[in-house]
Each structure stands twice: as C-alpha cells, then as structure tokens.
Design brief:
Chain lengths: 313, 355
C-alpha cells in the first residue's frame, strides 16, 4: 500500500468515525446523568431522515443538521425521557421501544425519499497552516467541518465534565441522585435535559451520516452504528476524549475491513467489525473483576440504568 | 425486574394493547389514505383468509419460542436480550451437524440438529450467564453486544465457507441449503398449510409451563428472581440457579433458530431472524413474563407483522410493523410502571434495580 493510499485510508477512517463521536457523546452525557439509552440507533435514524428531507428541500447543510438535531432531541425526550423519568418505566425496555419506533417512523417518513440524490455536496475544508504539517496534516486537517466540530465537542465535553460546576452537578446526578437531590438539584429535570441533549447529538449524528457521508436516505441505513456507539461509550470508560480516539480507531477498523476485502487479505472484514462488541464484553468483565480488589475501578456512573424516584432512599 | 406485585392487571394490559393497535391503525389509515378500507386489506391478509392464517402462524412460530426464551430468564429476574444471537449460533451448530453427517436418515439427523441447536444457543449464553451470576455484570448489555458478533459470524459463514454455489440476489445472505430430508413436513388443515414448527413450538412452551408450574424449578427460580437474599438464606445457591436458568433460556433461543431453519428457511441465512430476538422482548413484557400468555401475544405480534407485509403494497414501508411493536412495548412497560406507581410500598434501604 503506497503512502497516498494510506493517507486517504486514514482520512476516511476519521470521517467514518465522526458519526460515532456525536452519537457516542450523546450517549455518554445521558449515561453520566445516570440514564442508559440502548435505543441510540432509533434516534439516529430519526435524525438521519429529518436531516435528509430538510437538506433535500432547503439545500442547506446547516439547516439539515439543525433539523436532525432538533428531531433527535424531541424524539428522545417524548418517547424515552418522559416514560423513563416521569412514569419511571424501565430504561432498558423503553430503550428498545425507542429503537423500534425510530426505525419504523423514519422508514415511513423517508419512504418517498429513498435513493433520491441531494442538490449539494459537502466539501472539505483544509485548515490553513495545520494542513501543511507533514504526514498527519493531510489526514487530520483536510476534512469536512463537521469532523472538526466533533473533535471540538469532545474537548468541550471533557472540560465541562471535569472542570466546571455544571459538570460536577451532572456527575453528582449520575453517581448519587439522592445526594444530588439533597443538595438541591432537581434530578428528574437534569436527566430530562440530558436525555434531550444526548438525543440531539444522536440526531445530529444520523443527519451527518445521511447528508454528509452517504448523501442518500435508505431505511435502517445506520446499520448498527447506534449500537457501536453504545458499546464504545463503555469501552472508552465514559471519558469524552477516550471516546473520540476509540471512535476514530473503530472508523479505521471499518475502513481497513473494506480495504482488506479489495486487497484480498486473509482476515475477513466481519471479524474486524466484531472487535468493538467483543471488546465491550471483555472490558465489562475485566473492570468488574478488578473492582473486587480495587473499588471504583469500573468507572461506570453508579446509578446508571436505575429507576429514580424523588425523595426515595 | 419482573415482580408479581409491580405488574398491571391483565384487563389493563389487554386494553393497552388494543389502544396501541387502534392508534397504529388510525395512523396507518391516514398515512396510506385507505381510511376504513385499511381493515379489509389487513383482515384479508391475516385472519380473514386461510392463506393469511397460515402466514400469521408461520410468523408466530419463532416468536412463540423466542418469547419463551426471554420469559424463562425473566422468571429469574434477568433480561435475555441475546435471543437474536443465540438463535443464530443454534442454527450455526445445527447446520454444521447437517453438513457433517449427510448420510444419516432424515429423522435422526433432524433430532441431532435440534440437540445441536439447543447446545449452540446455550453455549452462546454461557459467558453472559456466568458473568452475571458470579460477577454481577449486566446480562442485558453483554447479550446485546454478542448479538452483533453472532450476526457477523453468520455473514462470515454464509458468504465464506458455506457460500452457495449459485449466485444469490443482491443483498441476500444465505448458505447452501441443508438436505431436504430434514425439512419439516407441511400439513394441510383444510385450506391452510401449517409446518411442523408451530405445534413443536407450542409443545416446547407447554413443557416449560408445566416444569415451572409443577416442579421445584418454578418456585426456586421465582425466589432467586424476586429476592436473592432470602433465596440464599433459604439455602439456595442463587448464583448457580441464575446461570443454569440463563443457559436454559439461551438453549431455547438456540432452538428457535434451528426450528425456523428446519421449518421455513432451510439454510443458514440472514432470513433466520427478522428482529425475532428483539420482538420477543416485547412478547415477554406484554405477556408479563407468563409462559401461558406468551403464545397468544406472539400470535398478536405476528398478526401485526403480517399486516405490515400486506400494507407494503399500499406504499407502507416494511419497518412500520417495528414501529407498532415498539409502541406496544412502550405502552406495556409504562402500564406496569403506572400500576407500580399506585400500589408500591417503598422499603427503606432497598434500592430498585432496573437492569
């Protein structure tokens, strides 16, 4: 493989990883607030179809991404946030319902838009100076602006969680909702807000997939990306920057799989694509194994997935 | 958690199901512009014609079995999200047996395949089961992840080592067919055609119902599922019960795959499952973890799926049935929580567990 091919491959890996960055960050924020949503796939599909339809009708990339974001946020809030936090239904079951409803709704909305071309193409922007760095410049800094947005968002999220009062409150809500409640935080409202924000990012991720990357709409076009994002949040140990890196690494894995297929490598792309799922299981088991000797090693938000009732101890 | 006290009463559940179907029906009637003639289209392709009834029964067969698998694990307070993967691995091992022993008489070979199917599913569930029972790793997340591994495993075998010699239609993933000697016979009941799979599925669920009703398995499992501390105090090895029940549940998941293969698909193919493992969660939740109710619920959801197939002609996308199933799952889970909201007694110091 020549240098140019490798360069193009790695640049493509970053593009491929970008929807995972957004969807994963959405999941990460909701999980940090203590809410586990397994239905990311459905939210992404809703964002993808509303983003695509908007792009088709307005011809504007920004409008399309905004539409995907708003659609994803509202959809998560109504079909996941309210049942889980107001009615206190089990997060796991509502997550699956969310996936099903999202898959069906998006397919129905996008039915008349299947395989229609978009009126524009998303162009890449070469960042001045940075682009001229030898070797890595052409890989990292000649991308569509949404790629930069994803990396920036991961950085901002990391700083927000670690260094701000808001982030501390968010972590408190996820780690110990009773204590957060006692400290005067409205746990239900915090979680609702972060379900909506997380859904917004996942909707945005879907819109990026349909409008920027694939530039077409097909039903169930996310093909499991939402579940990969769910897996990567765990693999990354709930850290935004680690999530960014694992997303790009998985993007590279996917691209390598398709390159390997054309080059006739002995390893099938199927086995490469298994990696994040297998890794999640291994990581979960190993972390809990270590937790026995060293408490706190799991890193998972302590109240993750549990139903919360205000005032209950 | 399936907790006897925390479930909505059966009449409320049935009412909620009807409401969900009604809302879905009105939505579809407006979407397609069919209005009230929607019902004629749907009924003629489901319960209104003998062909439709055969179709519903064919679609219900995997759902009955997979619903049984989910319900068995739910009895011990665990969520088996992995039926989707277990059915693939069951069918994989069974197909391997079928390819390895082509000379055997059909009946013997199909019996061996059933055993292999059970083992394949059980082995696939073993790792999450052990991790849950002895380490407390959430079985929902691990089984969910392993589903995607199994789906890729299927793709590898069906397009690689077991690929058919003839070329398939674009997007179709299927191995070469298994010997027709093991295919299940199709019986004609008047104008209807029913494969052996459906009665077999009913028989299996009946066996499990009887085992849980009349042997010690039932109460022991229920005790571990509802109150593990009491179970341990009573001398039950709770961890062992947990993994045994979960492996059993995985075995039923494997049976789902091999029975669908023998009855309907006849190869190791992506067609073995149309989200069966996930719809099965809806079956078990709507049936409130009851084995007796899960067969009728599976038939209702199969009706939804069959209705969706017939409505594709009217310009409805095939995923709409998923939306309706999701809506029913949402409503059922919410109605349970609303019931709990009214009657629950809070116990100080005891945390609720959602996963």
């Amino acid at each position: 493989m020549t240098w140019h091919v490798l360069q193009a491959t790695l640049a493509l890996a970053i593009v491929t990883g970008t929807p995972l960055v957004f969807a994963g960050l959405g999941g990460l924020l909701a999980e940090r607030s203590g809410v586990l949503n397994v239905g990311i796939e459905g939210v992404m599909l809703v964002g993808a179809v509303f983003g695509f339809v908007t792009a088709y009708n307005t011809g504007s990339l920004v409008m399309a991404l905004l539409a995907g974001c708003v659609a994803g946020g509202l959809f998560s809030l109504v079909f996941f946030g309210l049942p889980v936090l107001k009615i206190r239904a089990p997060q796991l079951l509502i997550g699956f319902a969310l996936w099903f409803i999202g898959a069906g709704l998006s397919a129905q909305v996008g039915n008349s838009h299947t395989e229609t071309p978009l009126p524009f193409r998303a162009e890449t922007i070469a960042l001045p100076l940075l682009h001229d760095i030898p070797y890595v410049g052409a890989i990292l800094f000649d991308q569509n602006w949404v790629v930069y947005l994803g990396a920036l968002l991961a950085l901002v999220t990391a700083i927000m969680l670690k260094r701000t009062r808001h982030g501390l409150n968010l972590r408190a809500v996820g780690e110990d909702p009773q204590a957060a409640y006692a400290a005067g935080l409205n746990v239900v409202r915090w979680r609702l807000a972060y379900v909506a924000i997380g859904g917004g990012l996942q909707g945005l991720s879907g819109a990026i997939l349909s409008v920027v990357i694939v530039q077409a709409w097909r039903s169930e076009m996310t093909a499991g990306t939402g579940f990969v994002a769910l897996a990567l949040v765990t693999v990354a140990g709930w850290g935004p920057l680690r999530l960014l890196l694992t997303s790009y690494a998985f993007g590279a894995l996917l691209v390598l799989g398709s390159v390997g297929q054309t080059q006739g490598w002995p390893i099938s792309s199927e086995f490469l694509r298994m990696v994040p799922y297998v890794l999640t299981v291994v990581v979960l088991v190993v972390r809990i194994w270590r937790e026995r000797r060293r408490p706190g090693a799991t890193r998972a938000p302590a109240s993750l997935g549990q139903t919360y009732a205000p005032g209950q101890r | 958690m399936v907790d006897a006290q925390a479930l909505a009463p059966a009449w409320l559940r049935a009412l909620v199901m009807l409401l969900g179907l009604l809302v879905g029906g009105v939505f579809l009637a407006m979407q397609t512009g069919l209005g009230t003639s929607l019902w004629t289209v749907v009924s003629s392709s489901t319960f209104g014609s003998s062909l439709g009834v055969s179709q519903v029964i064919q679609l219900a067969t995997p759902l009955v079995l997979a619903g049984c698998a989910v319900a068995v694990a739910a009895r011990a307070g665990m969520w088996n999200i992995g039926v989707e993967g277990q059915l693939v691995m069951g069918a994989w091992l069974a197909t391997a047996v079928a390819y390895a022993a082509p000379g055997l008489p059909g009946v013997l070979l199909s019996a061996l395949m059933i055993v292999a199917g059970f083992l394949g599913g059980a082995m696939w569930a073993a790792v999450p089961a052990l991790a849950r029972a002895y380490l407390g790793v959430s079985e929902a997340v691990t089984t969910l992840m392993l589903n995607f591994v199994a789906a890729l495993w299927l793709q590898y075998w069906a397009t690689g080592p077991w690929a058919p010699t003839r070329t398939l239609a674009v997007g179709q993933v299927s191995s070469r067919p298994i010997t027709s000697e093991v295919w299940y016979p199709q019986f004609s009941l008047g104008p209807m055609t029913i494969g052996l799979g459906f009665p077999l599925a009913l028989l299996i669920i009946l066996l499990f119902w009887a085992a849980f009703r009349y042997t010690a398995i039932g109460p022991v499992t229920a005790l571990v599922g509802t109150d593990e501390r009491t179970a341990r105090y009573a001398g039950t090895n709770a961890a062992r019960v947990r993994w045994a029940v979960f492996v059993l549940s995985g075995g039923v998941g494997g049976l789902t795959g091999v029975i669908v293969e023998l009855d309907q698909v006849h190869s190791f193919s992506a067609q073995l499952s149309d989200n069966t493992g996930y719809i099965a969660i809806a079956v078990a939740v709507i049936a409130a973890g009851s084995l007796a109710f899960s067969a009728p619920v599976a038939i209702v959801l199969a009706f939804v799926a069959a209705a969706g197939v017939s409505l594709q002609i009217a310009g409805v996308s095939s995923e709409v049935t998923l939306m309706l199933t999701g809506l029913l799952l949402l409503l059922a889970a919410c109605s349970d929580s609303i019931a709990r909201y009214r009657f629950r007694r809070t116990v100080p110091g005891k945390e609720e567990e959602a996963l």
